[in-house]
């Protein structure tokens, strides 16, 4: 009796061990590729419980989500001989789980190495201005360079973004001086344009006052109002220019040293 119970216990234990070895759980965002004795067996398994042949099947789980992979900063020399460091981020997704298991060893490392090499290539083919201002075009170029080999591995490159461009300190100072000089130039241009417009307005006002005496009187009254509004002790009395000219003509000339009165000259005012 004891022998029978021992045999039953052993059988149950073996059944539990075999069940644990043959049952696997595949998550919703995964696919399972089964190799039986090293050979591809059947189609990729979907999410849920899946049964394997103990000691014969080996399950490879593949993540089917969009994966974010940062690319370490790569140092290179641009086409205009500037040393920079550029880092990026790659978004990719597996679309063929069989290819990434059978077609390439460690597809994640393969994508990272290709991304680093492509980034260094882009740096060498681009000017500094392109790296700073035309990132969208460079991102598209990187995406194409990565997508060509990745397609054969069952991977789709969703997008590539250049994150940061690190410049040498000397280049940063040079660009800062250049930007400051450009701002100074724009400021001077704006000031000159303002002075030109002001001079044109003043010239136009002078022409109006020269042709219309009433405009001069209006300006005189406006000046008096402004002075009075300042609450100071200055008193402004308008004195017509025509009266000054009349007094000048009416004043007799000073006698000469010999007592003779010089002849009066007639002055024509413009």
At CATH level 3, the topology of the domain at 66-167 is Tetrahydropterin Synthase, Chain A
Encode the helix/strand succession as letters. HEEEEEEEHHHHEHHH
Low-confidence stretches: 266-270
Oligomer: single chain
* Spatial separation of the terminal alpha carbons: 146 Å
Name given to the CATH architecture of the domain at 66-167 = 2-Layer Sandwich
What is the number of beta strands? Answer: 8
The residue-averaged pLDDT reads 79
Strand content: 15-25%
Biggest sheet layout: 3 strands, antiparallel
Find the CATH superfamily of the domain at 66-167: Band 7 domain
The CATH class of the domain at 66-167 turns out to be Alpha Beta
Enumerate how many helices there are, as a single number: 8
User: Nearest-angstrom radius of gyration?
Assistant: 46 Å
Helix content: 40-55%
Strand-pairing-aware structural class: alpha+beta
Q: Give the strand order of the largest sheet, numbering strands 1, 2, ... along the chain.
A: 3-2-5
Shape: rod-shaped
Family: Belongs to the band 7/mec-2 family.
GO molecular function, one term: peptidase activity
InterPro entries: Band-7_stomatin-like, Band_7, Band_7/SPFH_dom_sf, Stomatin_HflK_fam
Pfam families: Band_7
């Amino acid at each position: 009796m004891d022998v029978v119970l021992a045999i039953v216990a052993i059988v149950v234990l073996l059944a539990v061990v075999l069940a644990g070895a043959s049952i696997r759980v595949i998550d919703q965002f995964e696919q399972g590729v089964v190799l039986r004795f090293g050979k591809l067996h059947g189609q990729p398994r979907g999410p849920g419980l899946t049964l394997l042949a103990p000691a014969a099947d080996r399950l490879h789980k593949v993540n089917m989500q969009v994966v974010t992979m940062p690319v370490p900063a790569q140092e290179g020399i641009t086409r205009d001989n500037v040393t920079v460091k550029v880092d990026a981020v790659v978004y990719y997704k597996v679309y063929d789980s069989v290819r990434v298991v059978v077609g390439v060893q460690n597809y994640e490392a393969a994508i990272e190495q290709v991304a680093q090499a492509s980034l260094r290539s882009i740096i060498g083919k681009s000017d500094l201005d392109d790296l700073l201002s035309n990132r969208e075009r460079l991102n598209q170029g990187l995406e194409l360079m990565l997508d060509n080999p990745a397609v054969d591995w069952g991977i789709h490159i969703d997008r590539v973004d250049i994150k940061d461009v690190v410049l040498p300190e000397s280049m940063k100072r040079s660009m800062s001086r250049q930007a400051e000089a450009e701002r100074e130039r724009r400021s001077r241009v704006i000031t000159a344009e303002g002075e030109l417009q002001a001079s044109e307005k003043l010239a136009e006002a002078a022409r109006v006052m020269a042709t219309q005496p009433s405009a001069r009187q209006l300006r005189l009254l406006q000046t008096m109002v402004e002075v009075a509004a300042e609450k100071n002790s200055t008193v402004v009395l308008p004195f017509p220019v025509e009266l000054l000219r009349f007094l000048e003509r009416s004043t007799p000339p000073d006698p000469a040293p010999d007592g003779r009165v010089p002849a009066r000259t007639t002055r024509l005012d413009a």
